């Protein structure tokens, strides 16, 4: 068999899947997801608003700080990604996340199709049933354009790696892990 024929008959490697989630500070979301087995990358950026080409220090009104998570669906599926998301944000805070308040710090699940919406709604209902005495405010929204942080603001990408001491101080001072433990107990995955 020729090398070309063998290459054509080989089973193609699985394609990376993507999901966009907002859970407050994108530094923290990057760190929380890049530690997850099956995730190859989490990219910081913005989505959900109408301003074209939002920037961190400039116009991003109406946008959420979000991460685009690239993962291998043969290792972790979409539901597994969402299960990890729920225990890594406060789904009861309608003002933002932890010490960060305002629209850009609100949590949200951005869905690309009906199947993602169905699964996202199932996971949301699971949280509602798990904590029936609280109101889950994390919405499920249609995915629009995701704008990665770029240019001179690229220092935000992988901030938790590049500036680990500052990142750890911020995360601690913001009370993120303390609040996650209060809500989720042992399920919290800092």
| Regions with little confidence, pLDDT below 50 for 5+ residues | 1-13
Most strands sheet = 6 strands, mixed
In which order are the strands of the major sheet placed? 7-6-1-3-2-8
Radius of gyration: 18 Å
Give the tally of β-strands: 8
Query: Roughly what is the average pLDDT, rounded to an integer?
Result: 90
- Helix coverage percent of residues? 25-40%
Task: Please give the alpha-carbon distance between the first and last residues.
Answer: 51 Å
Order of helices and strands: HEHEEHEEEHEEHHH
Shape: globular
- Percentage beta strand: 15-25%
Structural class: alpha+beta
Number of helices: 7
Structure write-up:
The N and C termini lie far apart (51 Å). The protein contains 7 helices and 8 strands, in the order H-E-H-E-E-H-E-E-E-H-E-E-H-H-H. With 190 residues, it is an alpha+beta fold. The strands form 2 sheets. Strands 7-6-1-3-2-8 form a 6-stranded mixed beta sheet, covered by helices on one side. The longest helix has 17 residues, at 114-130.
């Amino acid at each position: 068999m020729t090398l070309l024929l063998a290459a054509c008959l080989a089973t193609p490697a699985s394609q990376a899947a993507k999901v966009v989630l907002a859970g407050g500070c994108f530094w923290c979301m990057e760190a929380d997801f890049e530690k997850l087995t099956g995730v190859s990358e989490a990219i910081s950026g913005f989505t959900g608003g109408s301003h074209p080409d939002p920037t961190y220090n400039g116009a991003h009104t109406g946008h959420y700080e979000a991460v685009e998570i690239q993962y291998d669906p043969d290792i972790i599926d979409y539901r597994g990604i969402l299960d990890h998301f729920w225990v890594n944000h406060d789904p009861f805070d309608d003002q933002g996340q932890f010490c960060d308040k305002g629209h850009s710090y609100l949590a949200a699940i951005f869905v690309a199709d009906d199947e993602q919406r169905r699964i996202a709604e199932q996971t949301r209902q699971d949280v509602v049933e798990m904590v029936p005495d609280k109101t889950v405010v994390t919405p499920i929204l249609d995915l629009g354009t995701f704008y990665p942080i770029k240019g001179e603001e690229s220092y935000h990408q992988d901030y938790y790696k590049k500036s680990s001491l500052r990142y750890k101080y911020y995360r601690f001072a913001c009370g993120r892990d303390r609040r996650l433990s209060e809500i989720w107990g042992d399920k919290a995955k800092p």
